[in-house]
Amino acid sequence: MAYRSYVDDLVALLDRDADRVVLEDDDRTYTGGDFVALIRQLTATLSRHGVTRGRRVALVAPITATAIAARYAAARLGASTVFCPDAGSPERLSIFLSRIDAKTLIVFPETGRAAGIGGDLQILAVGAVDGLDDLLDGPSPDADEHDVRSTVSGDDECALVATGGTTGISKASIRTFDEYRRLVDLGPTPGRRQLVCTPLAYIAQTMVDTVLLGGGTVVLRDRFTPDVVIDAMEQTAVTHVALVEPLVVELVDSDRLPGADLSSVEAISHVGADAAPALRARLVDRVGRPVLVNPYGASEFGVVSALSGDDYSASSPHLASSGRPLPVAEVAIVDDTGQPCAVGEVGHIRVHTRAQAHGYSVAPAESGFRDDGWFATGDDGFFDDAGYLTIRGRAADRREADGAGWYPVDVQQALCSHGLVRYAVAVPAPDGCATEFGAAVIADPTAEVTVALLSEFLAEIASQFAETPLVLVDSMPTTEQGKPHRAAIGALLF
Predict the structure, then answer these.
(1) Which residues pair with 271 in a beta bridge?
(2) What is the CATH number of the domain that holds 447?
(3) Rounded CA gap, 226 and 228, in Å?
(4) Which of 27, 107, 144, 362 is the most buried (most CB within 10 A)?
């Protein structure tokens, strides 16, 4: 029996849902039949351009249906695909492309400028881009006998998924077709309407695959703003949205939120940062009902735990945690020698999941991938006596003060405990500084808040941080993905 990849099954499902709207972007809506026709058209034209099994195809993609379809088309031909991060930075994009050893680069009208970075790559366009053939300019196969695709095996390379790149240039973890299916094929999602408004290079791409494979609907928007998200919730009955922490704060603090119709919303997930308990309590109060979710995971291994429901409430004793590990994940806390830590003891987090990748395209000296099949996340944390996992932060960010180990989240917790602080992000101080951390703070704009006032507050409630440098900002510096931009924050402080 021929091997069926996740894309084969996805296309078959879309064919069965030929009349149901399965995806929409800023330009149009697509039924299952519409979207399959687009995938088949791009599969045929990519095949004519020599894209075949084993070829690495990089996409500098906007958040559009054509970008999703182009990736599926390349995968149907047996190619390995990667959505490129750092599309707005030619230097970082060039470095990333050099690290992944792609042979083909696909650009779009919105990202056509990246064609000049491609060097010796074969460069193709989906849509009108000056100097390039348009892959959409051709007939669309409309019958199975004209449907072009390649035979693959489960061990063939399927996808590279970029990391967030908050500590440097993004890396890309590699999965086979079998490994990638285990990451995204998570069961039925009927009725789910997933909003995606952040770059496809990161977690967004896997959410698209999960929802479409499960029979749900994906709503794409070309950018994040609070108005974009609220409009989508009100106008298209979005049920789920996943954002990184600074974007959730921006959304929740929008002046439009109190009067918005969020009745369709079932979950607003925040990922990619520590989220101090004081901040979480404020977000819960601001939203007004229990829809917030905090998953813990990474592109290398997927989601391993999640805090949600009654556990994510201001009165919950587990509000500082990221919930209990999921049944599909194993999580261990170990000390510096690799021995298991006791309950309540902070140690290094290791995980093992069926969904994890097997390596990086270019591995750093300490990649995290271990010979025993576990992944060393680089994070520190602990289990409480009820089995809830609390993330303390990156092990490299731990600092000693007053005879104890502290992390940036501890500074953030102290600052967010002030009633006039909306958000704070702390970063470790460079070597040679007289302090352990510094922090950028967003304060209530209707009040007179000064650095001196906040420093005095820190001295009163957390004396170990009394000398922490602070800077007030109107908006938090963020990366392309929307995570806190540690280097930019450090530059403001130090």
Answers:
(1) 244
(2) 3.30.300.30
(3) 5
(4) 107
Q: Are 270 and 276 in contact (CB under 8 A)?
A: no
DSSP string across 123-166: EEESS--TTS-BTTSS----SGGG-------TTSEEEEEE---T
Each residue of 361-372: b (16+ CB within 10 Å) or e?
Answer: beeeeeebbeee
Tell whether 190 is covered by a domain: no
Q: Using one digit for the tens of pLDDT, what is the confidence trace for 326-346?
A: 999 999 999 999 999 999 999
Strand partners, 241: 195, 268
Q: What is the DSSP annotation of 248-315? A: HHHHHT-TTGGGS--TT--EEEEESS---HHHHHHHHHHH-SS-EEEEEEETTTEEEEEE-GGGSSTT
The sheet that has 437-443: what strands, in order across it? 421-428, 437-443, 470-472
Rounded to whole angstroms, the Cα distance separating 472 from 493 reads: 10
Q: How far apart are CA 492 and CA 494, in angstroms?
A: 6
Look up the pTM and report it.
0.94
Q: pLDDT tens digits for 390-430?
A: 999 999 999 998 889 999 999 999 999 999 999 999 999 99
| DSSP conformation class of 430 | P
**Number of compact structural domains in the chain:** 2
Average pLDDT of the chain?
94
C-alpha distances in Å from residue 438, one per residue of 71, 85, 147, 171, 413: 41, 28, 57, 27, 13
Q: Which amino acid is at 381?
A: G
- Report the alpha-carbon distance of residue 251 to residue 375 in Å, rounded: 33
Q: Which of 195-209, 331-345, 363-377 is least confident?
A: 363-377
DSSP 325: B
What is the 3-class SS of 370-398, one letter each residue?
CCCCCEEEEEEEEECCCCCEEEEEEHHHC
228, part of any domain: no
Q: Which amino acid is at 379?
A: D
pLDDT of residue 18: 97
Between CA 250 and CA 228 the distance in angstroms is 12
Domain range for residue 109?
Answer: 6-182
Cα(462)–Cα(467) distance, integer angstroms: 10
Is residue 219 a part of any domain in this protein?
A: no
